[in-house]
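Shift notes (night). Ran ENTH domain-containing protein while the centrifuge was going.
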Amino acid sequence: MATKFRTVIGILKDKASLIKATLSITNRHTSATRVAVQRATTHDTSSPPSERRVSAVLGSEGSRRASCACIEALMDRLNATRSAAVALKCLVVAHNIVSRGSFILRDQLSIYPSSGGHNFLNLSTFHDKSDTATWKLSSWVRWYAAVVEQNLVVSRVVGYYFSNEVSNLGNFKIRRDREEKLLALLTSEMLSEVEALVGFVEITRDAPDSWTELQKNDLVYKVVRLVGEDYKLVQYELTLRMKEIGERTKGTSYDELTRLQSELKRLEDCKERLMSLFLVKKRDSDFWDLIDQVKMKVEETIMERENQKLVRFGERQFFHEKNESSRFWNNNPFIESEDELYRLRSSTGGWSSNLALMPALSV
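Came back to this:
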């Protein structure tokens, strides 16, 4: 009964929101944009927004002003709602904007709000207290918001929207350009990109444990599938960087090696959880094999550097002790210096003269 009542209330809220979006905005195009957002983010707790509804929002581009109105409508909807279903659908639409939207839409999403000071994806305290089901669904909202936010963080660090590159993975020219870009980076710059990518892997690993929702809720399943696609792309980006850094280990500084070792440890801590979250394919096995290889290479290089430090320290200690010994013998008052021995030798005509002055021993 409670579920049916909540469903009816949700339907009424959706209708009221559509009427408000239609009548409260004077600009016709802006009104159509808000209506498209409302229709894509209904209160239905189990069904994801249809492809037609998402495409209608993605089609709200054109001028920068129109794109700005679209993002503003979406973020207003996300930050005003207390419904876990509506919040998840807003995040699904935002995720699709990042991965499939026009550049101007993605740009508006990444810089929203232009005045700064408000993290619109910070939903760490979000809770829908309507019932047990929506309470559990809230954990998916908090997690998914963190994933979408980290997606934008990674894109800013690497300099392009990586989740928009899925169609380009088979393009040889684009892949070659990516590899050439990495060759031009300093190791420290590449490590900064690795840190952001590993951050995405860690957030992905922290998916809620409520697998029953994943099995029976199409909305949650859609969310996990979208995140899985991004995770595949992150694997690809990390593979490029790990291969390149692996080739540079001999010329990498000790501090950079320890920094890389830390990132490899972070990745290793995610492996078991991720292998249980997503279907394991050959790509996954190859990725983790590469991580193990780079880890071994880094550990060997660090060990060599530490052994070299010990050898240099031993050499410095040896020369220090040798110098100390020399100072002792040179400054000992009971031992004649070479100059003093030479003076005595010259004044007596040599050691043989001293022997001549000694009285003969009687036999």
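The chain has 15 helices and no strands. Residues 351-363 have pLDDT under 50 and may be disordered.
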